[in-house]
Design brief:
It contains 13 helices and 13 strands. The chain has about 400 residues and is α/β, with parallel strands linked by helices. The strands form two sheets. It has a seven-stranded mixed beta sheet with strand order 3-4-5-6-2-1-7. The longest helix is centred in the C-terminal third of the chain and has 19 residues. It is globular and about 75 Å long. Bound molecules: guanosine-5'-triphosphate and magnesium ion.
Amino acid sequence: MIDHDQDSRPFLTILTPQGRGAVAVVRVWGRGAVAVADAVFRPARGPGLARAKAARLRLGRIGRGLGDEVVAVVIEEDPPVVEIQCHGGSAAVGLVVEALSEAGARLAEPAVWAELTGELSLRADALLDLTRAPTLRTAEILLEQTQGALDRELMRLIEEIRGPHHVALEHLDRLIARGQVGVRLTTGWRVVIAGRPNVGKSRLLNALAGYQRAIVDPTPGTTRDLVTALTAFDGWPVELVDTAGVRETDDAIERSGIDRTLRQTETADLVLKVLDRSEPLQVDDRTLMSGPGPALLVASKADLPPAWELEAAAAASILAVSAERGDGLDRLLAAVIAALVPVTPEPGAGVPFRRAHLDRLERARAALEGGNHELAIQSIEPMLESAQRVQS
Ligand SMILES: Nc1nc2c(ncn2[C@@H]2O[C@H](COP(=O)(O)OP(=O)(O)OP(=O)(O)O)[C@@H](O)[C@H]2O)c(=O)[nH]1
Ligand SMILES: [Mg+2]
């Protein structure tokens, strides 16, 4: 634990995850933060940081030699907080951190920041989550929440609850829909690929992940355990899970793999049910198709002569793909994204990003529907009260 009183140097905290993303965010905060940032920041033009207006973005350089090109902004003057956005590579972050450290700042983990400042606000929580954002897209949404997007939207919502009923309800619904995406920003989604042995599951995983993660082989029963690949679809973090083909078997190892498959398909955010189009449909395919849960039907091996017509699979839409040639993969990706992220938060939108926020908003919605405006406001306000403490 760092004792704030014994040592009066300001802190520096790297907010973005290491080694990922095009941009890294470094925050300098605490007594003397503006002076330290000012000492290392070489503005492209105009006065130094200490004389710049608060909240004004400044372009310049930080670091030895040419240094890294950065955007710096004094977010708050009291207590002082300066944000520096530099390039995301570890070399660029290293230059910035080195310069700031030499000028007198000391490195602190994001959790220390929340602990020392005693901040329990939406913004502080968003900062903590931002350090765990797996992709640039999820980081951008959380960055907007650190800058108060959700605070502002909740304040507007409270005003609306005091006004005409229907406006507030619609607004709440929009927020709750965004929250379904928001609670996945750090964890991502899990997509399970399931189907009979040899239908092409592993090859599909490799094609979707963009590299040869799973073993592909003409022998049915090749994949016996779960194989996972972390990837991102259109900037949304997705864990792909390849599974053992489901069939009747006497092999104990294969059987236990199959049991795992069945458990995975029950808890997945989405199951890609793969049917081999080059072979007649079998009983196991029909069983898979009729299984519960959110799923997309995929007809694999579209480059081979078809053994059945697409209508034979189901009334529901089915996507034909060839992992071999790449046909249909774009459409499949678009369908997966549409299923996982039905609502894309617009830039600058307030996004509830924790389960607790969603719970509160859902309670507010129920209260509002029951005509209890006061209770609705009481459900929302605790999220904001702590935020206002920070601003004051
Ligand atoms: N022509 C063609 N062959 C494919 C395609 N996808 C997979 N295959 C072949 O089908 C066979 C099985 O592929 P896998 O991806 O290992 O199938 P699997 O469903 O993972 O099989 P198990 O792990 O045994 O359950 C291999 O010989 C692949 O090369 C495709 O799109 N076109
Ligand atoms: Mg396999």
